[in-house]
Amino acid sequence: MAVYVDPLLSCAKSRRWPWPEACHLIADSASELHKFAAKLGLSHKWFQGGNRRLPHYDLTAGKRKQAVKMGAVEISREEIVRQVKKYRCLVDKILEG
């Protein structure tokens, strides 16, 4: 099992997200994701998931760098898109079933 980060992207600053860049932290399992996020110093209330959304946390550039030092695997933008599609397909099958 592993934890992954995708590349940083520029994003619009807002009151909720005042940083100029962000990326996603995902994992092979929800428990592994939450455990790693806690070690990274992230609050569980920042978790995003549900409704066919790939379970993830958003990371700042500094937290991404820290996550990589802690063992997160760097993946491409294409790979994160594949993970989103795979997750949505799985959720759809469960909902149909």
* Overall domain count: 1
Report on the biggest sheet: 6 strands, mixed
Rg value: 13 Å
Low-confidence stretches: none
Distance between the termini: 26 Å
Average pLDDT for all residues: 90
Which overall shape is indicated by the principal axes computed on the Cα atoms? globular
SSE pattern, N- to C-terminal: EEEHEEHEH
**Portion in beta strands:** 15-25%
Question: Helix amount, in percent?
Answer: 40-55%
- From the helix content, strand content and strand pairing, which structural class follows? alpha+beta
The count of strands amounts to: 6
What's the total helix number?
3
Explain this structure to me?
The chain has 97 residues and is an alpha+beta fold. 41% of the residues lie in helices and 25% in strands. The chain starts with a strand and ends with a helix.
Main attributes of the structure:
single chain; alpha+beta; 6-stranded mixed sheet; 3 helices; 6 strands; 25% strand
Outline of this structure?
The protein is an alpha+beta fold and 97 residues long. It is built from 3 helices and 6 strands. The mean pLDDT is 90.
Task: Furnish the topology, listing elements before pairings.
Layout: E1 3-5, E2 9-10, E3 21-27, H1 30-40, E4 48-50, E5 53-59, H2 61-69, E6 73-74, H3 77-96
Parallel strand pairs: 1-6
Antiparallel strand pairs: 1-3, 2-3, 3-5, 4-5
